[in-house]
């Protein structure tokens, strides 16, 4: 039955118009471009920014609603829930942060015969409701979560066809970024104490098996370009020069031609701040694991009620996701 569905998916992709392939990213022969739409990215941002999620502050009903929605999305995509020694695995792993209960949502996209893992993460929490005003957090960080879900959809769909990334990819929607990055600390703790289990083998995923940690945080806007007049851009912050080279190569080969920057608006101090001190990748950087933060930069809307879906550029967000996927294929060989 699984082979039948793989065949149907393959035929469906091949029946799509060839011009789409020619104009797509280079990832897995261009199929990645066919698996990602502006509409799907926009729908994710709209849901997370809606009053139902009420700004997604940790432990609020809106944040819990968002975590359930994320778990359902992981299940629909066919991502595997992490293993558990306590019965039913499930996608959600809870933790305590500043006296509040946070919920990380974790899904595995396995690669046959690989004992290496990449982590792709984006925090979904935001400020919630303050002084009776809701902070939607469309760019911060519904955009990052939408990008993470887009990458998960691409990876899982291609893995069904045997075209997937050659390493296992762990997708994580992190909670409690606003509470001293407690969600990423909890994830790192699970890797340290052996409580994050590979669902296929039941064995712990060890820190020394993690090839790279990817953090997607504020990636949907074109309001603050690095270079004036070049709205199609992407900032990558990392201490690993090989990761920078791979992104430049991916940008060239895919012909996406985004304006790439490897520092935070040419500021050494802000680059250090966002990479090494306040991002969810920080704990992994401190642990010596190659890490990368992808962002489009803070805008005048960040942490304000004006951070709404209408302020995002979905066409550029889609290009950024496609570029990150092609980069992942190069890095995770």
Describe this entry's structure for a reader.
With 333 residues, the protein is an alpha/beta fold. The chain has a single domain (27-331), classed as Zn peptidases (Aminopeptidase). The protein has helices at residues 2-14, 18-22, 31-34, 38-49, 61-77, 138-160, 182-193, 241-254, 268-276, 282-286, 314-331, and strands spanning 92-97, 100-109, 117-123, 128-130, 133-135, 168-174, 210-216, 233-237, 259-261, 291-295. The strands form two sheets. An eight-stranded mixed sheet has the order 1-2-6-3-7-10-8-9, sandwiched between helices. Strands 4-5 form a two-stranded antiparallel sheet. A hairpin with a 2-residue loop joins strand 1 and strand 2. The longest helix is centred in the middle third of the chain and has 23 residues, at 138-160. It is globular, with a radius of gyration of 19 Å.
Comma- or semicolon-separated keywords:
single chain; 333 residues; alpha/beta; Aminopeptidase; eight-stranded mixed β-sheet; two-stranded antiparallel sheet; 11 helices; 10 strands
């Amino acid at each position: 039955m699984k082979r039948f569905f793989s065949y149907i998916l393959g035929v469906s992709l091949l029946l799509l118009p060839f011009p789409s392939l020619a104009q797509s990213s280079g990832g897995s022969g261009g199929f990645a471009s066919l698996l990602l739409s502006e509409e799907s990215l926009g729908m994710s941002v709209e849901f997370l920014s809606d009053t139902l999620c009420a700004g997604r502050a940790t432990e609020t009903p809106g944040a819990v609603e968002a975590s359930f929605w994320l778990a359902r999305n992981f299940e629909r995509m066919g991502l595997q829930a992490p293993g558990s020694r306590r019965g039913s695995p499930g996608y959600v792993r809870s933790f305590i942060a500043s006296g509040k209960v946070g919920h990380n949502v974790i899904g595995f996209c396995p690669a046959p015969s690989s004992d290496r893992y990449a982590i792709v993460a984006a925090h979904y929490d935001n400020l919630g409701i303050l002084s009776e005003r809701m902070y939607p957090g469309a760019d911060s960080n519904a955009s990052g979560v939408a990008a993470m879900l887009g990458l998960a959809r691409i990876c899982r769909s291609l893995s069904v066809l045997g075209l997937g990334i050659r390493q296992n990819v762990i997708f994580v929607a992190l909670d409690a970024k606003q509470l001293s990055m407690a969600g990423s600390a909890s994830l790192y703790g699970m890797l340290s104490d052996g409580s994050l289990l590979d669902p296929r083998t039941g064995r712990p995923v060890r820190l020394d098996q993690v090839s790279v940690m990817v953090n997607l945080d504020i990636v949907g806007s074109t309001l603050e370009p690095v270079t004036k007049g070049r709205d199609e851009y992407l900032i990558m912050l990392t201490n690993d020069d090989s990761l920078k080279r791979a992104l430049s190569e991916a940008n060239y080969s895919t012909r996406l031609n985004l304006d790439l920057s490897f520092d935070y608006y040419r500021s050494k101090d802000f680059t250090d701040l966002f990479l090494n001190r306040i991002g969810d990748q920080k704990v992994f950087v401190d642990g010596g694991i190659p890490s990368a933060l992808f962002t489009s930069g803070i805008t005048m809307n960040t942490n304000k009620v004006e951070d709404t879906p209408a302020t995002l550029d979905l066409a550029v967000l889609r290009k950024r996701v496609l570029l990150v996927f092609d980069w992942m294929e190069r890095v995770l060989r």
